[in-house]
Amino acid sequence: MAEKRSMVQIESLEKYFGEDKERVHVLKGVSLDIPEGALYTFLGPSGCGKTTTLRCVAGLERPEGGKISIDGKPVFASGERVYVPTNKRPIGMVFQSYAIWPHMTVFENVAYPLTIHRRPKSEIKKRVEDVLKIVGLHGLEDRPAPKLSGGQQQRVAFARALVNEPKVMLLDEPLSNLDAKLREEMRFEIKALQRRINVTTIYVTHDQAEALAISDQIAVMHAGKLIEVGSAHELYSRPKRKFTAIFLGLTNLIEGRVVELGGDSKPGRIETKNGTFAFVPATGLVKGQTAVISIRPEHIQVHKQRTQGLDNVVEGTVKEAVFMGDAYHCQIAVGDMLLRVHTHPFLSMSRGEKVYLHLDPQSCNGLPAEDIEGMDETMLGD
User: Fold this and answer.
1) Distance between terminal CA atoms of the chain?
2) pTM of the model
3) Around Cβ 209, how many Cβ atoms within 10 Å?
4) DSSP H or E stretch at residue 260
5) 220 vs 38: CA distance, rounded Å
6) Residue 241, Cβ neighbours under 10 Å: how many?
7) pLDDT for 201-235, tens place per residue?
8) Helix (H) or strand (E) holding 209
C-alpha cells in the first residue's frame, strides 16, 4: 500500500507566553507529520501544549520559532518571516464552545463563512444543503439555533467548518460540553463523518477513552514536548515510554533491574523484589538498567489454583473486589505490591481470598524507569 502524503507538517515549533520573569516555555521543539485523510489526535493533560499547537496550526497563535506547512505550502516559517493569517489558511475549526450564533437559523449559521466571502446565493444554498445532509441536519435549515439540542448544535458547528471545503479540520475538545451518553454517541458520529468526507482532521482532547475510540494516530504530549506517536492500539498495548503507559488508561508498574534482554522471540527477564519476570523490553533498554514492567489490569489472569508450566505466576491475596457489571475490579496484594486486576464477571472474588496471578509475558512491557524530568503522577489528568 502506498504511503499517504503529508497534509500538515510541524517542524521544531517553539512558543512562549508572557514576558521576562513571567515567560513560560509552552512548546519545546514540537515536530509532527500528519498524513492526508488521517484523524490525528493531540492527547495530554491540561497545560501540555496540545491546544496551543492546534491554535498555531490555525494561525490563532504566532509561534516564536519553527515552521508549519499545510498541503506542502508554508503558513508559518520563523526564518523566512512567513505568516499566513487564519482566514487565508485552508482550514475549518470547531471550538469547544461551538460558537453558534443564537440569533441565526441553522442555515444562516452554516452559510456564514460563505456569506462574508460574498459567494453567489445559488452556490451558498447548494453547499449548505449538501453539508447539512452530510451531518444529518437536512430539513432543519429554518430551525432557530437556541432550539437545537447539544448534539445538534455540535453538528451545526461541524457543518459550518465543512462548508468552505477545508483541507484540514481542527477540533478543539469538541465534545466536552456534552453529557456522558451523548459524548459516546458523538465519538462514533465524528469517526464515521471523518471517514465519509476523508478530510485530514486534528483533534485535541485530554480524554484517553475519546482518543482511543476515534484516532488513526495519537500524539501524546506533556509539558510542551512530544512524548510518543502511534496508533491507539500501539500506544495502549505496546507503549515505549512510562508516561504513555500511565496516562493512557490504567496500568500496573513493577520496578526492577534488567538481567536479560532476550531476542529472537525469547523474552527478556527483569529482577524485582517479588521475583524474576519474563517481559518484552522496549527499544533502547540495556542489561543492568533500572526499568519498570507495565501491565494492564485486564492482561493479568486470575486462577484459584496454582498453575504449572507458566512464566510470571505469583501468589496474591484479594484486598478489594468490586463488581462493575462487565468485570470485577480487584486490588490484589503480592508481597509489598498492590496490583489492579480486572477479571471475568463470572469469576467471583472475595476479600481475603488467596489467588494466583499470571502476568502474561507478552503483555509485560519493559520501559525505562526514568522517563520525564519533573513528571508527577498527580499531573496526569482524568
Assistant:
1) 37
2) 0.87
3) 13
4) strand 252-260
5) 16
6) 19
7) 999 999 998 999 999 999 999 999 999 999 999 99
8) helix 208-214
Model confidence at 377, in pLDDT bands (50, 70, 90)?
Answer: very low
Q: What is the DSSP letter of 86?
A: G
Query: What distance in Å separates the CA atoms of residue 169 and residue 317, rounded to the nearest whole number?
Result: 50
Using the predicted structure, report yes or no on whether residue 271 has a pLDDT greater than 90: yes
Comparison of pLDDT for 169 and 136, the residue scoring more:
169
Is the domain covering 6-237 a CATH 3.40.50.300 domain? Answer: yes
Q: What is the pLDDT of residue 2?
A: 57
Grid coordinates belonging to 90: 485552508
Task: Enumerate the domain spans of the chain.
Answer: 6-237, 251-369
Instruction: Report the CATH superfamily, name and number, of domain 251-369.
Output: Nucleic acid-binding proteins (2.40.50.140)
> CA–CA separation, 148 vs 138, rounded Å?
13
Model confidence at 378: pLDDT above 70: no
Residue type, 360: D
Q: Which long-range contacts (CB under 8 A, 24 or more apart) does 275-281 make?
A: 275/314, 277/311, 277/312, 277/359, 277/361, 277/364, 278/311, 278/312, 278/361, 278/364, 279/361, 279/364, 279/365, 279/366, 280/238, 280/361, 280/362, 280/364, 280/365, 280/366, 281/366
Placement of cell 471523518 in the chain: 194
pLDDT recorded at residue 175:
83
Which of 317, 293, 309, 313 has the alpha carbon at shortest distance from 301? 313
